[in-house]
Design goal:
Length: 180
């Protein structure tokens, strides 16, 4: 997993819970290189999972809630850092329908070794979108948070229903979105 995901997670934890909580989380996890990540490095996603579990224990917040909040935060960061990818987009659905064909293509140009989830998109109507998420890392909560950040970015109210079709591992999830 690309280091940018790790560095932004550490920034999220620091901004949300404070420096002390972040340092305590990193120390408790016994991370490779003591959590000194670089944005362009590549790291084992299990280290991110370990930090989430540790933060969950420290804050008494369910891991899925933390990861979704992080995903929402991450969307804002990405929309700011890579503004060209969202410029000209008029809605969350317009952006989300271009995940594979535009966004992930551009991510691979920047980070050729990036291991990205895959999304298959269906749009039954102008007000509905179905996203089929697939990733061996099982980080569907990050994807859900990113979507919620996207809705907020465009000022939209979208009902999001989620179905795990992988038997509880969150490696294959269907997101059903309906604009309100």
């Amino acid at each position: 997993m690309k280091g940018m995901v790790f560095t932004e997670y550490i920034d999220f934890v620091t901004d949300t819970f404070g420096v002390e909580v972040c340092e305590s989380m990193i120390d408790a996890c016994k991370l490779t290189d003591d959590g000194a990540y670089t944005a362009v490095g590549t790291y084992d996603h299990k280290e991110l999972v370990a930090m989430v579990v540790q933060l969950s224990e420290a804050t008494k917040t369910p891991p899925s809630d933390l990861v979704k909040a992080y995903g929402s935060h991450l969307f804002g960061v990405l929309a700011s850092k890579y503004a060209a990818m969202v410029e000209g987009m008029n809605s969350s659905f317009e952006l989300l329908t271009q995940i594979e064909d535009v966004i992930h293509v551009n991510v691979r140009k920047l980070y050729p070794d990036a291991e990205l989830p895959t999304f298959r998109v269906e749009q039954p109507s102008r007000e509905e979108l179905v996203l089929h998420y697939q990733s061996e890392r099982g980080l569907a909560d990050v994807a859900e948070g990113l979507m919620k950040g996207c809705f907020a970015h465009f000022g939209e109210t979208v009902d999001l229903q989620r179905e795990d079709v992988s038997g509880g591992s969150a490696t294959s999830v269907i997101f059903r979105l309906k604009k309100q």
